[in-house]
Amino acid sequence: MLKVTVYKIDGDCMEPTIQIDERILVRLRSHETEPPNRGDIIAYHFPQPPRPGGPDYPYSEFLRRVIGLPGDRVRIKDNRVYINGEPLEDRYVFFKDNSVETWVPGDHYFIMGENRNTSRNSDCLDLVPDGLIVGKALVLSD
Questions:
Q1: Which residue has the higher pLDDT, 113 or 53?
Q2: 132: helix, strand or coil
């Protein structure tokens, strides 16, 4: 049985692919779901610290593109993304002065937003444990 949920986008990290106020469908994961592939757009939980005097939300949900798979070496240098030493054909590389090199541990994925020059690094790229992935984006629409 296919289970989906609708996400309304409220940030600009995935522009120009996904615009603010767009709605997309995300196929929710189950134990039979295949793992994400490089290039997939995923929804994931991002743990949040408690907020003094405010409501406690254990996590926020974000959408990002999968760049690195478990076991990959990801390097970002001179406005290019390299996976295991090979340049990634990536039409959304708009870096300011970022230089990153990391190994993607087993059961993690290296994710990035598309709008990399307007997003803070911590909002735009990260290592996400497989267990925090909610699902894959299915449909992009207005």
A1: 113
A2: helix
